[in-house]
Amino acid sequence: MAFSLSAGFAPLAALADPPVLSKLGDSPSTGMYSNYADDSGAVTRKYLGNAGADELSEAELVPALVSALDQLSKYHRPVAVPEIIRVPHERIEAIVCNAKCAALAAYRPGEGIYLDETLKPETDLFARSILLHELVHYVQDMSGEHGDMRLCERWYRREQEAYAIQKVFLFMTGSATRVGYSAHKSTCDDEPLSTGSAPAR
Ligand SMILES: [Zn+2]
Known about the structure:
Blueprint: E1 2-4, H1 12-15, H2 19-26, H3 40-48, H4 58-72, E2 84-87, H5 89-96, E3 103-108, E4 112-116, H6 125-143, H7 151-172
Parallel strand pairs: 2-4
Antiparallel strand pairs: 1-3, 3-4
Helix pairs in contact: 4-6, 6-7
This protein binds zinc ion.
The site of zinc ion has 7 residues, from strand 1, helix 6 and helix 7.
């Protein structure tokens, strides 16, 4: 459930495929889209609203990301939003891996989203994408997505989806940073004994 820089970066070239924009371009219903690069701003505004803005206030941040998530995912807009708890990096490590690790954020059901206090999602798009990633876990939890699956399988599917949405967000905002989820499909051999935050790797 945690976002970690070590959780799977792939080389830019391998992830630079533009599935979203190609799909939009093929669709006759999105008349505002064209292949001209200058129109990418219009696409971004349509799908991300102001979530892609250069700067957001703390009050604007979560509502903007919830709206973007409404556009980018299959989930219904949540009626409430989780608390964002900014904590020192050591706290994230304690929650996620119980050791030194590169985790930057973690969603904990019933508590909220813990965010490394050095992250500035108001002004930094990559930090914002990390917050979006954790918000995906929140709406997954609210909707009971994959609740019927074994814990390890559910964790794998949820991470896969969170990274995919984060990747689309980064692509649409023109961020040079790319993320990918490269873990091998879980065989459930290493199933954690309890629920809560899953390992960052
Ligand atoms: Zn995650």
